[in-house]
Task: inverse folding
């Protein structure tokens, strides 16, 4: 696939994932890019975080990314034909203290992408809210819950295990507020 200025986040993410696979690199899309896709665009991200789930040398990453026109600038890859940039945050793939993450393969109009599940993407945003009081991440977690199939009992169990049962209740209240705003756009609550 060729990346152009008009390529959206989903198309670029699929292209990057395909290039990595062709170079023998195993990686999972995570972070804000997943949140953007699962919130159906309510949240916009310019970066794509791919967490490596197998060994990869820097030269392999450079070669894979170069096939798409990306060059390494410090700790990120930037492309001349897209506003999106790619980072490879240090693994392992985890959300809070949960290291048993099971990525999903999601079919998109552009191809297949290995990424966090909607439930794990929601938990990923909640981790930022729980640990750093990031209110935007709370809103994004609510948008993910409204826009995708999130298994709330699993999110509750994880929240309790992380020590944030009270914050989980705050998340549920935010989901309720977001639902009202979506169903009644002119109404403030």
Result:
């Amino acid at each position: 696939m060729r990346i152009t200025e008009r390529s959206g986040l989903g198309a670029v993410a699929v292209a990057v994932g395909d290039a990595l696979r062709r170079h023998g690199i195993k990686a999972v899309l995570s972070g804000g890019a997943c949140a953007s896709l699962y919130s159906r665009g309510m949240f916009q991200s310019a970066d794509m975080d791919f967490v490596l789930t197998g060994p990869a040398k820097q030269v392999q990453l450079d070669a894979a990314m170069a096939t798409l026109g990306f060059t390494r600038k410090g700790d990120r890859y930037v492309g001349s034909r897209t506003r999106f940039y790619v980072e490879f945050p240090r693994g392992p793939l985890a959300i809070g203290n949960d290291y048993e993450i099971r990525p999903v393969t999601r079919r998109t109009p552009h191809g297949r992408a290995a990424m966090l599940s909607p439930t794990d993407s929601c938990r990923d945003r909640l981790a930022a809210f729980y640990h750093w009081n990031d209110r935007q991440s709370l809103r994004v977690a609510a948008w993910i819950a409204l826009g995708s199939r999130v298994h709330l009992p699993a999110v509750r169990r994880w929240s309790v295990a992380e020590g944030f049962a009270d914050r989980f209740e705050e998340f549920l209240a935010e989901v309720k507020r977001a639902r009202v705003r979506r169903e009644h756009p002119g109404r403030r609550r």
